[in-house]
């Protein structure tokens, strides 16, 4: 076999054994392909792997293949058959199912897992072909490639990235779900849990172990932060175990999932049962919290007037209101208010006082009572900040209660359910200033509630104030006394903020320190993302079955160097013959590659007969060239370049 001809002139070829055969890649033993669970389970999928003949890429890309009559070894569909509806890995190509007709199968214990992005590799099993339903009768159906279910840029006619240095991307995945049929969301496959072992397994050995092993963990996001963020993702995806009895669609919203307590009792604030549902918008694909007020009939359209003002109010301590509407979809008269969804959140009541709070995904212990003064001031500061913003925009909270303060992160609170009272108890005659004064009194009661478990609405404040005097600083008592004092025009939230004094600065410090920490973590993750992009590029190139009608494309020229480099990075074997799983080696190599260092490494062929001495800079340019070839494959102008 002819030796592959590396293009880079600077590369030296060293033959340690003169009598060795010409330089060539090691023969690849024909490994039996591991079968995924779907392949075992589905006879349809099994036939795909038997004796397959590949659909010609030229037909897929250009619609025709000029080599068809000159012995092109690939499958060419008969005229009139849309090649994009055929599966390219089968001898008797069958039209593929539309993506949403696929069923997702949970992976078996030993099924191949995804390689590091933290998500289990989905295994899709197409339905048994239905000769009636599956004929290519829907010209608008996006073409589907075997192995994945997303349309490619070449299929959609979308140009790839014009920036030579950037990765191309599939614009079909950019999250603009407008125009998608809403019923496609209904067919949500059951969700796989994340590959948590990718994070929690012990880290591999590092070549030069530091004195402390703690720096090993600095490769990744800290465990506690990761768990919180993953719990939020899980909360967004979690599906109820059984039927919910809820409508499949509610306007543009679908996939309604109840949140909070399963039993819907009248709300302690609004008097009506007011369940909350998580729902997905068919317009923007985002997830929202839908608050339904059961049994409410709107009699005065003007009651919706305040909703517009609430919609415009955006504040970090207020749950944003998006829209409100009435509906009969629940077989009653219901008012629905759509709020921003804060996954895996709870209320101050459930976090500190409720005896039986609904479970959360992130299984951290409840804070309970008593609330430390530092945390108490954090709550006071944030709630005062929210009230100030609301009063400044000419509104009132009207219904400040522990159950309506949402805890969305560590000591991070937001006022929830804003605007509901303005519709439920529409009152154009009472001046807003009166409602604002009521807010201040409610705020004072809320602080008493947070400091004394035994406080009951209507109770004389002397008992709770005594308790506060004994357990908290005088400043807490002073602010409570101010807030619950008799309403008067001069009393405002500004005075309460003034009373908090320097405590506000503590909050500012804490926030800024937290931002610093998060920015540090973000910087680390950017580096990880950079390496993943590099690996994706390598993955596109390495072991590609055929390209440009050359079945050995990935084994020749520059690509051969990349193959050996991949072996060098990932497939090293130690002196004991065991695989070397050294994360720091991998990270070091990839970072040097990305930086394009002049440092040279020796790549050894698989048969140990030849080796290449090559610099990272040269390997990097090999990647650019090979990747550029792939990117230009779908570009009809490439011949003119
Ligand atoms: N905007 C939101 N985003 C995410 N989750 C929310 C949101 N609003 C409410 N929830 C969830 O719904 C749960 C119930 O909220 P709700 O305001 O109904 O509290 P509650 O204690 O049941 O009060 P009520 O007595 O008024 O029914 C909360 O614990 C929270 O988990």
Automatic annotation (TrEMBL):
Please state the protein's primary subcellular location.
Answer: cytoplasm
Could you say which residue ranges form the zinc fingers (C3H1-type)?
50-79
One Pfam family recorded for the sequence: Pkinase
Name the residue ranges with Low complexity bias: 16-43
Keyword annotations for this protein, in alphabetical order, are: ATP-binding, Coiled coil, Cytoplasm, Kinase, Metal-binding, mRNA processing, Nucleotide-binding, Transferase, Zinc, Zinc-finger
Any one GO molecular-function label of the UniProt entry: poly(A) binding
Positions in coiled-coil regions: 502-540
- Chain residue ranges for the region called Disordered: 1-49
Q: Does the keyword Cytoplasm apply?
A: yes
Q: For the C3H1-type domain, which residue ranges apply? A: 50-79
- In terms of domain of life, where is this protein from? Eukaryota
**SUPFAM superfamilies membership:** Protein kinase-like (PK-like)
| Domains (record comment) | Contains a pseudokinase domain. The protein kinase domain is predicted to be catalytically inactive because some of the residues important for catalytic activity are substituted and it lacks the equivalent of the binding site for a peptide substrate. However, it has retained an ATP-binding site and ATP-binding is required for mRNA degradation, stimulating the activity of the PAN2 nuclease in vitro.
Q: Which PANTHER family match?
A: DEADENYLATION COMPLEX SUBUNIT PAN3, PAN2-PAN3 DEADENYLATION COMPLEX SUBUNIT PAN3
Subunit-level organization: Homodimer. Forms a heterotrimer with a catalytic subunit PAN2 to form the poly(A)-nuclease (PAN) deadenylation complex. Interacts (via PAM-2 motif) with poly(A)-binding protein PAB1 (via PABC domain), conferring substrate specificity of the enzyme complex.
Q: What does this protein do?
A: Regulatory subunit of the poly(A)-nuclease (PAN) deadenylation complex, one of two cytoplasmic mRNA deadenylases involved in mRNA turnover. PAN specifically shortens poly(A) tails of RNA and the activity is stimulated by poly(A)-binding protein PAB1. PAN deadenylation is followed by rapid degradation of the shortened mRNA tails by the CCR4-NOT complex. Deadenylated mRNAs are then degraded by two alternative mechanisms, namely exosome-mediated 3'-5' exonucleolytic degradation, or deadenlyation-dependent mRNA decaping and subsequent 5'-3' exonucleolytic degradation by XRN1.
Give the UniProt family note: Belongs to the protein kinase superfamily. PAN3 family.
The protein's name is PAN2-PAN3 deadenylation complex subunit PAN3
UniProt organism field: Naematelia encephala
């Amino acid at each position: 076999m002819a030796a592959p001809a590396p293009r880079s002139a600077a590369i030296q070829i060293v033959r340690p054994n003169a009598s060795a055969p010409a330089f060539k890649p090691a023969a690849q033993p024909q490994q039996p392909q591991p079968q995924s669970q779907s392949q075992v389970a589905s006879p349809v999928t099994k036939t795909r792997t038997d004796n397959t003949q590949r659909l010609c890429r030229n037909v897929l890309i250009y619609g025709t293949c000029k080599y068809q009559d000159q012995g092109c070894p690939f499958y060419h569909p008969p005229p009139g058959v849309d090649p994009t509806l055929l599966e390219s890995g089968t001898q008797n190509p069958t039209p593929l199912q539309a993506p949403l007709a696929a069923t997702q199968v949970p992976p078996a214990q030993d099924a191949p897992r995804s390689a590091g992005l933290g998500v289990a590799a989905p295994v899709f099993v197409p339905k048994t072909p239905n000769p009636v339903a599956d004929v290519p009768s829907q010209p608008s159906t996006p073409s589907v490639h075997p192995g994945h279910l997303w349309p490619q840029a070449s299929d959609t006619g979308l140009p790839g990235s014009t920036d030579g240095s950037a990765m191309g991307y599939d614009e079909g995945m950019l999250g603009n779900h407008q125009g998608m049929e809403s019923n496609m969301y209904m067919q949500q496959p059951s969700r796989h849990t994340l590959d948590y072992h990718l994070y929690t397994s012990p880290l591999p050995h590092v070549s030069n172990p530091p004195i402390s092993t703690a720096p090993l963990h600095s490769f990744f996001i800290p465990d506690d932060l990761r768990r919180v963020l993953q719990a939020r993702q899980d909360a967004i995806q979690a599906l109820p175990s059984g039927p919910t009895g809820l409508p499949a669609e509610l306007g543009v919203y679908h996939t309604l999932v109840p949140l909070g307590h399963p039993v819907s009792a009248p709300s302690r604030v609004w008097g009506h049962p007011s369940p909350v549902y998580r729902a997905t918008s068919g317009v923007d694909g985002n997830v929202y919290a839908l608050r339904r007020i059961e049994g409410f009939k709107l009699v005065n359209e003007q009651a919706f007037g305040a909703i517009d003002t609430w919609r415009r109010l955006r504040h970090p301590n207020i749950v944003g209101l998006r829209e409100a509407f009435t509906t009969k979809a629940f077989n009653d008269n219901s008012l629905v208010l759509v709020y921003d969804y804060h996954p895996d959140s709870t209320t101050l009541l459930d976090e500190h006082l409720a005896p039986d709070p609904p479970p959360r995904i992130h299984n951290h212990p409840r804070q309970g009572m008593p609330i430390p003064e530092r945390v108490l001031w954090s709550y006071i500061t944030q709630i005062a900040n929210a009230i100030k913003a609301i009063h400044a925009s000419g509104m009132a909270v009207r219904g400040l209660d522990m159950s309506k303060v949402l805890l969305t992160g560590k000591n991070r609170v937001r006022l929830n359910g804003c605007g509901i009272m303005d519709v439920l108890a529409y009152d154009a005659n009472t001046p807003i200033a009166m409602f604002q004064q009521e807010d201040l009194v409610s705020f004072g009661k809320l602080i008493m509630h947070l400091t004394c478990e035994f406080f009951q609405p209507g109770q004389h404040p002397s008992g709770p104030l005594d308790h506060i005097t004994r357990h908290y600083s005088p400043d807490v008592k002073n602010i409570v006394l101010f807030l619950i004092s008799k309403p008067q025009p001069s009393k405002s939230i500004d005075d309460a903020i003034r009373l908090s004094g320097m405590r506000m600065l503590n909050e500012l410090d804490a926030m800024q320190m937290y931002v610093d920490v998060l920015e540090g973590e973000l910087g680390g993750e950017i580096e990880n993302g950079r390496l993943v992009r590099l690996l994706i590029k390598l993955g596109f190139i390495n072991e590609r079955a055929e390209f440009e009608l050359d079945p050995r494309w990935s084994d020749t020229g520059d690509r051969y160097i990349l193959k050996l480099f991949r072996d060098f990075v990932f497939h090293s074997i130690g002196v004991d013959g065991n695989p070397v799983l050294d994360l720091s080696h991998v990270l070091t190599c990839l970072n040097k590659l990305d930086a394009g260092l002049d440092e040279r490494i020796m790549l050894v062929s698989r048969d140990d007969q030849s080796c290449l001495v090559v610099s990272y800079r040269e390997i990097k340019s090999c990647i650019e060239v090979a990747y550029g070839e792939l990117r230009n494959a779908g570009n009809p102008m490439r011949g003119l370049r």
